[in-house]
Amino acid sequence: MPTHSERRVLNYTPEQIFDLVADVANYPKFLPWCTNVRVKSKTSQELVADLTVGFGPFRETFTSRVTLDRPRVIRVTYEKGPFRYLNNVWTFTADPKGCLVDFFVDFEFRSRLLQAAIGVVFNEAVRLMVSAFIKRAREIYGPSQFAALPAGRVRPAL
């Protein structure tokens, strides 16, 4: 039953980070172990997608429902696949330095073998995943818009 929560300030707006996390269809381009995504349905408030993840000899596909409460919260709930349960919540809050991101994930595989395999690499996997989102933000949005500005310049409003 790996659980992880993390809080970080990223130097982008909450809307930018929300859009990045909500762009599930592009996860295979930058997210480690995400090998395929098939968006089954999508509205402005929700999407349902099949995600395929692979690590080592393991490859599993699962269906999740992603609730989009723009620009504050993204909730991921499990629908079908190899888990007993999966809960994932992203919260985005304006901060003077950009966006305060709260990330929480809790899951358990049905298979004891899969659970044991992920348990060995879970902390490193989460670190790599968080780093991948930060790197993707830089690729899409460029250097932080909240970086130090020359004297006399006003920081962008949130």
Automatic annotation (TrEMBL):
Gene Ontology terms, MF aspect: ubiquinone binding
Pfam family, one: Polyketide_cyc
S-adenosyl-L-methionine listed as a keyword: no
The entry's keywords: Ubiquinone
Calcium listed as a keyword: no
Family: Belongs to the ribosome association toxin RatA family.
Descriptive protein name: Ubiquinone-binding protein
Organism encoding this protein: Acetobacter oeni
